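All the exercises in this workshop are built on plain-text protein records. A record pairs a protein's sequence with a compact description of its fold. Backbone structure tokens are a discrete shorthand for how the chain folds in space. Once this layout is familiar, the rest of the handout is easier to follow. As an example, a complete record with its sequence and its structure tokens follows.
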Amino acid sequence: MSWASRFRLLQYTKASLWIVPLLGLILGVLLAEWAVSVDSEGLPAGWRYSASTAGGVLTAIVGAMIALLGFVVTIGVLVVQQATGTLSPRYMRLWYRDRLQKAVLATFTGTFSFSFALLRTIESDSVPDLGVTMAGAAVSVSLLLLLVYLNRFTHNLRPVAIAELVGRLGGTVLVRGEAAVLGAAPRAGDPGAPADGGPVACVRSERGGVIQAFHPGRLTALAERHDCVLVVTRLVGDYVPPGAVVVEVRGGTSAPEPREVTGLIAFGSERTIEQDPAFALRVLVDIAVRALSPAVNDPTTAVQVLNHIETFLHAVGRAGLRDRYVLGDRHGTPRLVVQGRDWEDYLQLAVTEIREYGTASVQICRRLRSLLEGLLTALPPGTLPAVRTELALLQESVEREYTDPARRALARTPDPQGIGTRPRPRAD
């Protein structure tokens, strides 16, 4: 199995809502067999049951677990409706991976299979006392997890809570991804690929799809074995149609097999966050734009999302991103060229659509200006021209939207709360 196939399998496993519950189901049966085989002679008197009591208790537990599973599924349906209606459908890919949800489902299915397996062993002169007690304890754990589950999703389904979670994930992926690319092999500066008149071979995608991830270390090693340079022509997150060029092979005397190369690049049906921090920013912008739509008309939510977008942009601005990276082998020879998103790419993604859809809201204009002016004062000099460009575009949008001088002056005023503070003289 290639690395790309293993990556896709791992992605499927992370997003699956049935694999962990299935393991819980199997574990429940195995624990029931163990509980039956254990001698119950040394158990306390309070742990002993009659056959009718044990049968009634286990039957009630089986029915309760089925009902609770239906309840959790109903909550899941409500989450899907909430996400697609007021948040962003892209957020669902992150919600599927919630470990608490899978733990709740696994506990319910495990308790169900454990109790059901014990039922068949009950006879008038033989009762699995230890197993019945364990089933009662499992119900207690299930109910506790259900309460934690309800509390978590009641609080965490608010747009601002989701924005905070997505922004934190994006920042983590940004740091980890940058370290993975730059640490995959010793840097060879940025000399670029050898200028040999163009590629000697092109590797094309077979099935097409969105590039979800690639393995820079193995691509570098593959290029070293063939004494060539591999140039990845697409960004992580790009959609590649079938037959399109994804890697150019330059230099060297032999080209690697196309399947060797494509086996180190994972394609899928949609973007994933593993090597694509811009996907997190995309989700944040989607939530803000959805809040600004006429159907929702909630600019305050968009302002709250902009708070987390600003935090993310500060992290990006200090990261020193470039539009391409050249990785070398252990001898420092350039072997792999990969495309990257630079500061301007992230900045445009963060503010363009919110500016276009939110200019009619004074609150959004003021918050955007505050965000951009904050970037001007906090980021390195190399990032500032792009910020000034966005400030000029915001100014033009305000000029077009507000013809009244008083409203125009109000919209020009930076405000970190959107509407809630006004400029005050600085205390000396």
